[in-house]
Amino acid sequence: MIRVLLVDDQPLIRSGFRALLDLEEDIEVVAEAADGNEGLALARQHLPDVALIDVQMPVVDGIEATRRIAADPALAGVHVVILTNYGLDEYVFEALRAGAAGFLIKDIRPEDFLHSVRVAARGDALLAPSITRRLINRYVSQPRNPGIATGLKELTAREREAVILVAQGLSNDGVAEHMVISPLTAKTHVNRAMAKLRARDRAQLVVLAYESGLIAPQNP
Q1: Does pLDDT of 82 surpass 60?
Q2: Matching Gene3D superfamilies, A to Z (predicted)?
C-alpha cells in the first residue's frame, strides 16, 4: 500500500487529489495539511511513502518543507513531489536542490497523476518533460559545484556512464539496455553512484550530474 500525504493550502485542490487517490486499491491518503509546517509534523507522525507538497503556501512554503524533510534522517523514506501551477524555473531548482524527487503541474491528467504517484513511491525521479527541458537549459549558465569533484573521482567508469544515462532521462531498464548489462547491475551502478555523490535520490543525481559538469546540455 502506497501511503500519501497531501500538503496544499487550497482545500479544493486537496479534495480533488484525495478523490482520485481514494479510488485506487494500492494507494491510501494518510493525512492532509494546509501548510508546510503542519505537513512536516504529519510526515513525522505518519511516515508516508509520498508527500505531495504545493510549492507556494503560507507559514512554511513547499521548498522549505522539502528541505526540512530531506534533512531529517527519520524521514529518509519520504519521497517529496512538488505541486505547482506553472513550473517556474526558480522553484524547480530550489526544490530539487532541497531534495524533491520531482515536480508535477496541477493540470496533469488524472491517469498521469496516479502513475506519477506510483513512480515516486518506487524512488524514481519524477520531472514533467517541459520542466526537464527548462532544467537542462538553465544549467548551461549555472556555476559548477566544485564540492562534487571528490565524489566524481570515486566513481568507476561504469558508474559514471550510468549517471550520465540517468541524467539523460533513462530508467534502470534503459540504462541496462544501453550498457548491455542486466537491470539489476544497472541499478547497482546507479545506487553506488548515488551513495558516493551523497545524492538523496535520482532527481538529485541528475542535478549533481549537471552541476559537476559531468554532463552538459549542449553535448549530452
Answers
A1: yes
A2: 3.40.50.2300
